[in-house]
Amino acid sequence: MKWRRMPVGPIQANAYFLINGDQCLVFDPGGEGNKINQYIKEKGLTPLAILLTHAHFDHIGALDEVREKWDIPVYLHQNEKNWLTDASLNGSGMLRGIEVTAKPADHLIEGDGELNIGPFHLETLFTPGHSPGSVSYYVKDADLVISGDVLFQGGIGRTDLIGGDQETLLTSIHEKLLTLPEHTLVLSGHGPETDVRTEQDQNPFLNGFSL
Question: CA 110, CA 189: separation in Å to the nearest integer?
Answer without folding.
Answer: 21
